[in-house]
Amino acid sequence: MDVTIHESWKPYLQEEFSKPYFNNLAEFVKAEYRQHQCFPPGSEIFNAFNHCHFNDVKVVIIGQDPYHGPGQANGLCFSVADGVSHPPSLINIFKEIETDLGAPYPTSGNLERWAKQGVLLLNATLTVRAHQAGSHQNKGWETFTDAVIKLISSEKENVVFLLWGGFAKKKAKLIDAKKHNILNSGHPSPLSANRGYWFGNKHFSLANQYLESKGKAKVNW
């Protein structure tokens, strides 16, 4: 696994890349990509960092696992490549944006446009074997992405963390709530959303209100 990550992150993460757990993780990922179909494509594993540079981070969205269907995952949580049909969670995210902000439902599910505005779209696990959800969990990715969350919490201030669902909410313990704004809600998956735990959370307008109150540009969701 080649760690092709944007220069802005390297001073902060270089030490992480040299730790034994990360070397073991890299060997595991290389073997998986050789022997099986895995997602996202190898060149896109670190897309969350390559499209959102360290100095620009102002919102963090935490997902769990990449999509495991062909052509879906592009290295950004909840995002799919242009032209790919929108998965159910992404549909519910866009529906909430429609009602919260009055914005039209977008054609493309590619969230690079958010990343370029400073939204870090971070999955806890950055790779997955095709058609096997969770297949790369507990191999070291979570250690790495937890380190990223702690890094942002300690080195930056006034970042909005959007924690959707039980898994993401557990990451709150890594974040300094005195320096940052943590917004929790149910997950946008149909199971959670249809029980009333997602729609109406207004996270997109609340995030923008907070950013503007701290003198930062709001996100064009």
UniProtKB/TrEMBL annotation:
GO molecular function: uracil DNA N-glycosylase activity
Catalytic activity of the protein: Hydrolyzes single-stranded DNA or mismatched double-stranded DNA and polynucleotides, releasing free uracil
PROSITE patterns assigned to the protein according to its UniProt record, in alphabetical order: U_DNA_GLYCOSYLASE
EC number per UniProt: 3.2.2.27
List of catalytic residues: D65 (proton acceptor)
Gene3D superfamilies: Uracil-DNA glycosylase-like domain (3.40.470.10)
Domain of life the protein comes from: Bacteria
Top EC class of this enzyme: hydrolase
CDD domains given in the database record: UDG-F1-like
Residue span, Uracil-DNA glycosylase-like domain: 50-211
Annotated compartments: Cytoplasm
Signal peptide: none
Entries under Pfam families matching the protein: UDG
InterPro entries per UniProt: UDG_fam1, Ura-DNA_Glyclase_AS, Uracil-DNA_glycosylase-like, Uracil-DNA_glycosylase-like_sf
Protein keywords: Cytoplasm, DNA damage, DNA repair, Glycosidase, Hydrolase
Family in the record: Belongs to the uracil-DNA glycosylase (UDG) superfamily. UNG family.
Function: Excises uracil residues from the DNA which can arise as a result of misincorporation of dUMP residues by DNA polymerase or due to deamination of cytosine.
PANTHER family, per database record: URACIL-DNA GLYCOSYLASE
Protein name in UniProt: Uracil-DNA glycosylase
Species: Tamlana crocina
